[in-house]
Amino acid sequence: MQLREFLSVPYLLEAEAVEAAPGQWLVRLTYPELPGCVAEGAVVEHALRDLERRRIETILDLLEDGHEPPVPRPPLAGADPLWTARDLGLADRVAALADNPRAPVARG
Fold first, then answer.
1. What whole-number distance in Å separates Cα of residue 86 and Cα of residue 63?
2. Domains of the chain by start residue, with CATH
3. pLDDT tens digits for 65-94?
4. How many angstroms separate the CA atoms of 44 and 100, rounded?
5. Model pTM?
6. Angle (CA) 76 98 52, round 5°
7. Rounded to a whole number, what is the distance in angstroms from the first to the last CA of the chain?
8. For 46, phi and psi rounded to 5 degrees?
9. Backbone φ, ψ for residue 54 (5° rounding)
């Protein structure tokens, strides 16, 4: 698989309301299929943006360390993960890995 495909895998998203303090609630979002992919916030949209950033960073970290990210289902054909990476300020990091011919982005 290529980097774009890894970034297009649709992961299961879990959401829950958590009480941070009496009467103070946050939303906790997770991609449980990816290690450490958790975000919390008072505003769902902010937590989702943080979670998407963490998803991309986790996939990049795994690939840079020579490990394949989990692929529980096939990549979405119509996804545009590069747009998301640019929007989250990760375009340079994605481009560096995608442009590196020795980067571990293909299955053996």
1. 19
2. 3-99 (3.30.160.250)
3. 999 999 999 999 988 888 888 899 998 888
4. 35
5. 0.86
6. 50
7. 9
8. -70, -40
9. -65, -35
C-alpha span between 34 and 39 (Å, rounded): 12
* Strand, helix or coil for residue 3: helix
∠ CA 17-53-59, rounded to 5°: 110
Here the tokens at position 79 are 């996804």
Six-digit token string for 81: 């993960």
Task: Report the run of H or E that residue 93 belongs to, with start and end.
Answer: helix 91-99
pLDDT digits (tens, 9 = 90+) for 21-58: 999 999 999 999 999 999 999 999 999 999 999 999 99
Strands of the 24-30 sheet, one edge to the other:
14-21, 24-30, 38-41
Contacts of 5 (CB under 8 A, 6+ apart): 75
pLDDT of amino acid 106: 46
3-state secondary structure of 19: strand
Angle (CA) 107-3-50 rounded to 5° is: 130
